[in-house]
Amino acid sequence: MDDVACEVGLSRPSVYRYFADRDDLLIELITRHARALLGRARKSISRQSSLPDQLVQIVLYTAEHGRRDPLTRHVIDPDGTSLGRRMIASGTTEMMRAEMWDPILDAALANNELPVGLPRSDIRLWLGDVTKMVMRGLEDGEADVRRYRSILRRFVVPAFVGANRTAIAEVTAF
Predict the structure, then answer these.
(1) Which tens digits make up the pLDDT trace of 107-122?
(2) What confidence category does residue 172 fall into, taking pLDDT thresholds of 50, 70 and 90?
(3) Are 118 and 141 in contact (CB under 8 A)?
(4) Considering the entire predicted model, what is its pTM?
(5) CATH of the domain at 56
């Protein structure tokens, strides 16, 4: 905290007026960094015209950045450190997932591409875990982006496209 205070030209007590401790400061830094990444990710997925393409693109974009950038990685995969536990306990991880996925899910819902009533928190958690799996696979060299794109199209996309068809069939059956 001394280094931070010196860098920004404040006294250490002044820094503590804004942040209770080092972890609070790091959580704020990680959150700001993640929001900047989300802005870039949205530009990347805005070129995709369909829900399947958007889902695949944002998972790959985020996983690729998480693989290379430690701050992004911490958002995708908060570890068992005190910082990671605080990010989860404070709701920061869930908030960042919501900021990432909700615009896509909202648009899909408005376009009747997503059934009404699917629990958002479950969708976000699952897609976050898929992103973490892809990031780790890219790191370990298990597969490349092209192969993961194919895997996501075969296994993740049908969870949404198939869910919509099932929901429509159930509604029309009544």
Answers:
(1) 998 888 887 788 999 9
(2) very low
(3) no
(4) 0.80
(5) 1.10.357.10
Tell me the CA end-to-end span of the chain in Å, nearest whole number. 63
CA dist 99 and 124 (Å) reads 10
Residues in the chain: 174
Is 122 strand, coil or helix?
helix
Q: Distances from the Cα of 42 to the Cαs of 68, 127, 159, in angstroms?
A: 19, 16, 22
Structural domain of residue 70, as residue ranges?
Answer: 2-173
Per DSSP, the residues of 149-164 read HHHHHHHTHHHHHHHH
> Over the Cα atoms of the chain, what is R_g?
19
Give me the phi and psi of 79, to 5 degrees please. -85, -170
In the structure, how many helices (H) and strands (E) does the chain have?
A: 10, 0
CA atoms within 13 A on the CB side of 35: 7
Q: How many domains does the chain have?
A: 1
